Amino acid sequence: MPMGKALEELKRYRRTAAWVLGGNERAIRFYERCGFRFDGKKQELTWRTTVTEAGMTVNTEKPPVKTLFAPGRALRAYKPDLVQRMMDFLMEAGLVEGEYTACCKEPQCTAEKTVLINCCPGCSRKFETALTDVIPVSLWKTLLDTDFPFPDYHGRKMAIHDACHARNRNSSEMQAAARALCRRMNIELTEPAHTLDEARCCGGSAPDFETRKDMALRRAAEFSAEDVAVYCTGCVRSFSLTPVHPRHLLDLLFEEPTEGLTVQP
Asked: Among residues 84, 112, 143, which one ends one of the domains?
């Protein structure tokens, strides 16, 4: 039975629980898209070997009924054509019903529980803290379970930079998904000395131009590759002040150059 129909049948119950094997990322992503979240329960099963299962539950009395694409105003202003192509893909795949156009700086409450598929770590963080009726899900994570026509970069070496807002959130889903997407595109990633939750800031939060440039140059000096995969437009702007070449994930997915995002003194 399809999960959507199963959840519909389970509406008469307040909550529905499921068990998933630890490390089964594909199953975990599937359940998360259906609204399930880890509930802290664990159990061990022994059959030839011992495995650990984690409990996930969903409120089936009031399940998420709407999913929208929230690309963010900065990304839409940067590459409106690519955002539209991604929107078209998500619509055709039946993954979204429309677009959430409000700015994360002035978020608008939705009339019902809503899943927002977003690609900006800053937007995601604001959605989590400002909207109680919203479940933010990473676009990069969502794409991993689709038939998106991923390009092949034939083992091209790139460094990777993690945005400040991607730290310490939801098992660092954007950090992990960004790396998984790069592997899907046959990109060979090199990690800088400070990475993931320990990544140094690109300078986007600096109070002035010179400080931002100094922070960007210090961070860029840690990369061992000329091209750097990033998933934040603010980080792209900062690295435009350095010798490295930032490559936004959206551009990489559509084999487009990353250009036009700069910082003025």
From this structure: 143
Give phi and psi for 132, each to the nearest 5.
Answer: -80, -15
- Could you list the residue range(s) of the whole structural domain that residue 50 is in? 3-58
List CB contacts of 99: < 8 A, sequence separation 6 or more. 68, 69, 70, 71, 87
Q: What is the pLDDT of residues 111-156, one digit of tens each?
A: 567 888 998 888 877 777 777 778 888 899 999 989 999 999 999 9
Provide the 10 A C-beta neighbour count for residue 255.
Answer: 10
Tell me, yes or no, whether 111 and 84 share the same domain: yes
d(CA 31, CA 28): 5
Structural domain count, the chain: 3
Answer whether 0.70 is exceeded by the pTM.
yes
Alpha carbon distances (Å) from 257 to 20, 111, 196, 251, 253: 40, 38, 25, 6, 10
| Pair 117, 95: CB distance under 8 Å | yes
Q: Which of 125, 122, 152 is nearest to 230 (CA)?
A: 122
CA atoms of 182 and 252, how far apart (whole Å): 9
Q: What does DSSP say about strands 227-230 and 156-160: parallel, antiparallel, or unpaired?
A: parallel
- The SS3 assignment for 38 reads strand
Q: Are residues 177 and 121 in the same domain?
A: no
Say which range, 38-52, 111-125, 150-164, has the weakest mean pLDDT. 38-52
Work out the average pLDDT over 187-192: 97
